[in-house]
Amino acid sequence: MSNDALRIALLGCGTVGTAVARRLVDHADEFASRVERPVEITGVAVRDTSKPRPESGLDPSVFTTDAEALVRDADVVVELMGGIEPARSLLLTAMEHGASVVTANKALLGEDGPRLYETAAEHGVDLYYEASVAGAIPLLRPLQVSLAGDSVERIMGIVNGTTNFILDKMDRTGEALDDVLAEAQELGYAEADPTADVEGYDARAKAAILASLAFHTRVAALDVSCEGIMSITADDIRAARKMGCVVKLLAICERVRNGRGDQSLSVRVHPTLVPRSHPLASVHDAFNAVFIESALAGEVMFYGQGAGGDPTASAVLGDLVQAARHKVTGSRGPGESAYADLPILPLSQATTRYAIRIEVPDRPGVLAHVTNVFAGQGVSIESMRQGVRRSDDGLATLTIATHAATDAALARTVDQLRLLDDVSTVTSVLRMEGI
Amino acid sequence: MSNDALRIALLGCGTVGTAVARRLVDHADEFASRVERPVEITGVAVRDTSKPRPESGLDPSVFTTDAEALVRDADVVVELMGGIEPARSLLLTAMEHGASVVTANKALLGEDGPRLYETAAEHGVDLYYEASVAGAIPLLRPLQVSLAGDSVERIMGIVNGTTNFILDKMDRTGEALDDVLAEAQELGYAEADPTADVEGYDARAKAAILASLAFHTRVAALDVSCEGIMSITADDIRAARKMGCVVKLLAICERVRNGRGDQSLSVRVHPTLVPRSHPLASVHDAFNAVFIESALAGEVMFYGQGAGGDPTASAVLGDLVQAARHKVTGSRGPGESAYADLPILPLSQATTRYAIRIEVPDRPGVLAHVTNVFAGQGVSIESMRQGVRRSDDGLATLTIATHAATDAALARTVDQLRLLDDVSTVTSVLRMEGI
């Protein structure tokens, strides 16, 4: 076996890149033992080479602005710049020149994954992205490899730490979303522009990656129905509590079987009522957790930190060791598996349970009219709870939990409720899972 | 690529073997897609071929009593017979003849793992054993591969479902161990001879496997200090509850650093007080969970079913797909990694916190005498709680929680307490973790 060091190129040197570099430098002997060959950072592409980066532990001479040249001469390229371009072009160039690739770039995978997989396959290199979903939690490899002999039926994941922090805080303190969001921004749990998190776009890209691996089907981010948390009110959280539930933003990927045995997928992100007894309900703060149901293994849960420099570096370095080992032994890990090619259901055909809160006048006949609307759409009511009539407007809150129904049937039900004289307002409609 | 089917040999056809066979038969197309070659069960070694096994879905002609011939002509051998011999000889023969091997046999790995690893390395085949620890939970591969760039500092695992069922039941109902054990036997959660579970031997073999993978060091079952749950009383559980704790049988594997920066390992199995707020405390019934602390990833937890035919089959089939893929591509997975070769500390040098319950007469000066004993051994007291004096014998229960101390210092402390006139009985000594 050659003893030449494996050449590692880093693209980007922010928090994660610095943690990755530091670890590789400080634990060089350990990495050499695990890879069975020394590994060496031959270059780090950055925008500004004049900025001192002592915390990386790297010699200043390895920093370069010429990422293009760097990726043409590496054994493994680690991409931590984020965004679509130039990350995509650089990864494609790297693979075309024989480098294996490690990335944490969920946006790129969600948008153009298949092109990356195909390039990896064509050039016989590895494409790893464990860090792209649920940060430090070893999740994608278990899903892709360990459960490869099983059949995943359903995944429910808390995969966005920012929104979990916000919803958990709202649940604990009763505060309004805007207040908690502002606090999350102060603490660094939410970005100045929180759109990608609170609108669910981040979770959507991760749902696409999870569904692709679990169901052997190409799922792009835009295939995933997505609803964020901005409309969740302190009242919603309070109502959830009364029902013994918490509100979580879940990425849900499930195999759906129709009566003829045909299979399809429902992949969606939305705020969801989860019973407090469910393992996902006790995931607090900015932690992530992914709950998997499979035919043989039953229920399995993975829990840990979803973000942060060190946790993300842990996942990146695990991939790096694996890709480097393969370079040493001349093998490669499993590539894309999309043989099942299942159709993806539109949200309207997704089936779930709902909790609907409406404001109604407290007078005889109202309940009959309301329940008739549900019956007319074939939506079966599981329970109904009427609050106390308020003295100011004479209205009472009615909370209705349904049995499983399609999103389309529910939408028609809500439309009709809105037209009903007896319904003053439809205050909220939330999906329920894990019951 | 050749399209000849890969030849799979099963050794044993009990609950797990039947579930494995059934899945391979019923989902042949799926396995062919995932492996990129058809897989075929060419033989199943059993003691009695005349016994009908329709639930396996296999043709009766594949059953054989000639395991020796079977393993000489297979691509992948799946060993589910358990015990040391003939399993060991058959696996060695299989690997010598070029077959990769999948096993759930923790006893064999705990006793003679290195010989198996060396044979696998020598013949360039895979040796996988995901099912040997925590059944369905994808755990060993994440530990070995996903965390390969990180540094595991500590593992605390509930890896024996039987004892967790018993301790959880005792906590919920206040019943005595003997009663709950009898019930567990009736329900099939405990065997007629429960020794391996309740004495901690099963957990000990699993601790050895976890420590070997996490710390790149050979650890055999007999290197692991082991204490079972038979001495745990309803009073212990009640006292734990008063301290805000539950009692769990934990497999603990930790990296220990001394003042000079030298590293060693402490690997042990014992009943442990765990605070109710710790994620491991909410692992109920016969479920398993493994909590890992590592330098970069922080805290990660894996949770799921630890035993049962289908869950174990899930892990076995994941290994089988991986080994079969490697046969198709001519590669192999990571072999044994024992480069760190860390020394294993004797239990006397393990450092942990303790909760000690003693019976003392309620008279002046007793507390001073008792605390002097601790001080004399350098064991620092964290808290002390005295119960109400009982009218029948004039004694009161004193519960003392210590700061971290070595097992040796604690043992000397307990010896001296026993000699003290002021101490009527040392009722129990339990270790505390996760605080």
Automatic annotation (TrEMBL), chains A, B:
GO annotation terms (biological process): methionine biosynthetic process; threonine biosynthetic process
GO MF assignments: homoserine dehydrogenase activity; NADP binding
Keyword NADP assigned: yes
Cofactor(s) essential for the protein: a metal cation
Record keywords, A-Z: Amino-acid biosynthesis, Methionine biosynthesis, NADP, Oxidoreductase, Sodium, Threonine biosynthesis
Catalytic activity of the protein: L-homoserine + NAD(+) = L-aspartate 4-semialdehyde + NADH + H(+); L-homoserine + NADP(+) = L-aspartate 4-semialdehyde + NADPH + H(+)
Pathway connected to this protein: Amino-acid biosynthesis; L-methionine biosynthesis via de novo pathway; L-homoserine from L-aspartate: step 3/3; Amino-acid biosynthesis; L-threonine biosynthesis; L-threonine from L-aspartate: step 3/5
Binding site for NADP(+): 11-18
Active site, per annotation: 206
Residues annotated as binding NADPH: 106
Record: residues binding L-homoserine: 191
Residues in ACT domain copies: 355-431
EC number(s) stated in the UniProt entry for this protein: 1.1.1.3
InterPro entries per UniProt: ACT-like_dom_sf (IPR045865), ACT_dom (IPR002912), Asp/hSer_DH_NAD-bd (IPR005106), HDH (IPR016204), HDH_cat (IPR001342), HDH_CS (IPR019811), NAD(P)-bd_dom_sf (IPR036291)
Record-linked PROSITE patterns: ACT (PS51671), HOMOSER_DHGENASE (PS01042)
Superkingdom of this protein's organism: Bacteria
Function: Catalyzes the conversion of L-aspartate-beta-semialdehyde (L-Asa) to L-homoserine (L-Hse), the third step in the biosynthesis of threonine and methionine from aspartate.
The family this protein is said to belong to: Belongs to the homoserine dehydrogenase family.
NCBIfam families given in the database record: PRK06349.1 (NF004976)
UniProt name for this protein: Homoserine dehydrogenase
